[in-house]
Amino acid sequence: MVYVMFMFLFGLVLGLAAVASNPSPYFAALGLVAVAGMGCGVLVGHGGSFLSLVLFLIYLGGMLVVFAYSAALAAEPYPEGWGSWPVLGVMVAYLVGVCVAAGLFWGGWYEGAWVSADEFAEFSVFRGDVGGVALMYSAGGGVLVLGAWVLLLTLFVVLELTRGLGRGALRAV
Amino acid sequence: MNPYILAILLFGLGLGTTITFASSHWLLAWMGLEMNTLAIIPLMAQHHHPRAVEATTKYFLTQAAAAATLLFASITNAWLTGQWEIQQITHPLPTTMITLALALKIGLAPLHAWLPEVLQGLDLTTGLILSTWQKLAPFALILQIQPSNSTTLIILGLASTLIGGWGGLNQTQLRKILAYSSIAHLGWMILVLQFSPSITLLTLLTYLIMTSSTFLVFKLNKSTNINTLATSWAKAPALTALTPLILLSLGGLPPLTGFMPKWLILQELTKQGLAPTATLAALSALLSLYFYLRLSYAMTLTISPNSLLGTAPWRLPSTQLTYPLATSTALTICLLPLTPAISALLTP
Fold it and tell me: Engineering a disulfide at B32: which of A17, B19, B25, B265 sits with its beta carbon 3.0 to 4.6 angstroms away?
């Protein structure tokens, strides 16, 4: 298990360096996918399985997909990835920086559950994350309706802003 | 714009302000502010020309940054003190961050640079909504926070009055003049906030009435710069006669309504022992007064060079509703004798 967590964290830092090394948006989005996926793995290892699932669905499956489509609109003829020296150089520099920082802060041990839980002896356990979802639908019903209304409003706002394609507000697209 | 979409957007605007007014939890207040920002974006960009889209983008970026800072500050306060209640913030770090975030939201100096450019890219009706309705929700929050740093608020206030005065002096575009006028008035409101929030509320309400009058006058005359204003005297002579009074009320001259907040603020500042601050604020009002006088001079006190046809335009019944203009003009000119009643009404 420790080895799996180690691999996840390794992939996380590698993905972060890949995003920060300023490649083309295609490869940066790929780096973000790797970061989010590895991060979800780390989260599961610490007990936050529900949040990891939500992160995968909403962040990767919703937001990152939209970002990938937007990146596809701004397509470049010669995208730069690790194959070109500027990107590879920055990436190596970041990884060296990570190794230096790791050397400085080496040591110590982190072990702990990520999610808070409230127990009543053998009778019940209230987990912080799924219990929160239950509360959102019961006591927080008003704010849930408000949140849904705001999302609907955002939909109408975006549709109104992009109405007209080339004759509307977005003329460079 | 599609009337259904317009109805949904206006409903969102109203709901956002109402939610912020009714909230005691920072998260709900933030939701109201974000709803306001979202709902006004298509209204600003409805005439899809690039200038309007540029103004919309600038507005969105600044307001989103301010709302994010506000959320960050309330979460920091929740982390530090466990408190989500709006009136119970006592830690100085979140208080200062919230003050600066709200200052960016309404356009106080030195966070004012977006306001003239945003207002310039909008038509007068949307500019009116931006200058009046969009200030209500942030002020509801400003009036409730317990200010921690007295110097920050006084510096924000004095800088706003001075920058509002000096910035407006070189402008020929009316919307930019009104933006700098807004900055100056907001400075006056913030000056007295820590001493008497009810005077801040009074200043806000009188400012809303006065600036509504001004925007509606310019809308009726279809004028957006001083040249057009100068040749609009024959379109509505009664309005031409009244507009100097509206503008001088904005400038804060007695016996017009605009004198009421300035008088009360100077009195409160003096009572608190801040006579030099009061003097500096009063002198900065002279700068604003100069450009209000310039507008009155161009419109009413002189007849600008124009062709003979410009002296006798067709005076058809206006397609614009004139009832709001009539009401707000009457209030802008005649409200000063009611000062004791109004301050009593606004003191809890």
Answer: B19
**Are the C-beta atoms of residues A47 and A113 closer than 8 Å to each other?**
yes
> Greatest CA span in chain B, whole angstroms?
72
- Calculate how close chain A gets to B275, using CA atoms only, in Å: 47
Q: Which residues contact A170 (CB under 8 A, 6 or more apart)?
A: A161, A162
- Which residues of A lie inside 8 Å of B (Cβ-Cβ)? 143, 146-147, 149-150, 153-154, 156-157, 160-161, 164, 167-169, 171
Cβ–Cβ under 8 Å, residues A42 and A8: yes
Which residues are bridge partners to B25 per DSSP? B85
Q: Is the dihedral of CA A67, A69, A73, A79 positive or negative?
A: positive
What are B169's two structure tokens?
Answer: 């002096």
Burial pattern B115-127, b for ≥16 Cβ within 10 A else e, equals bbbbbbbbebebb
Q: Residue ranges per domain, chain A?
A: 1-105, 139-172
B33 in contact with A at a CB cutoff of 8 Å? no
> Is this complex scored with an ipTM above 0.90?
no
Phi, psi of A113, deg, nearest 5: -75, 140
Contacts with B280 (C-beta within 8 Å, 6 or more apart), sequence order: B158, B162
The answer to whether A169 contacts B53, with C-beta atoms less than 8 Å apart, is yes
- Report the first-to-last Cα separation within chain A, whole angstroms: 48
User: Which residue in this structure is represented by tokens 């999302």?
Assistant: A151
Where in chain B are the domains? Answer: 1-135, 149-306+321-347
Tens of pLDDT, residues B21-50: 999 999 999 999 999 999 999 999 988 888
CA dist A110 and A123 (Å) reads 29
**Structure confidence by residue, pLDDT tens digits, B296-315:** 999 999 998 888 888 888 88
Q: Is residue B332 classed exposed, middle or buried when 0-12, 13-18 and 19+ CB atoms within 10 A define those classes? A: buried
Structure tokens at A114: 């990520």
Pairwise CA distance, residues B125 & B112, whole Å: 21
Q: How far apart are CA A142 and CA B97, in angstroms?
A: 28
In this structure, what DSSP letter does residue B310 have? G
CB-CB under 8 Å, A171 with B50: yes
* pTM for the whole structure: 0.86
The region that residue B196 occupies, defined by phi over 0 for left and psi between -120 and 50 for alpha, beta otherwise, is beta
B/e letters for B190-225, b = 16+ CB within 10 Å, e = fewer, are bbbbbbbbbbbbbbbbbbbbbbbbbbbbbbbbebbb
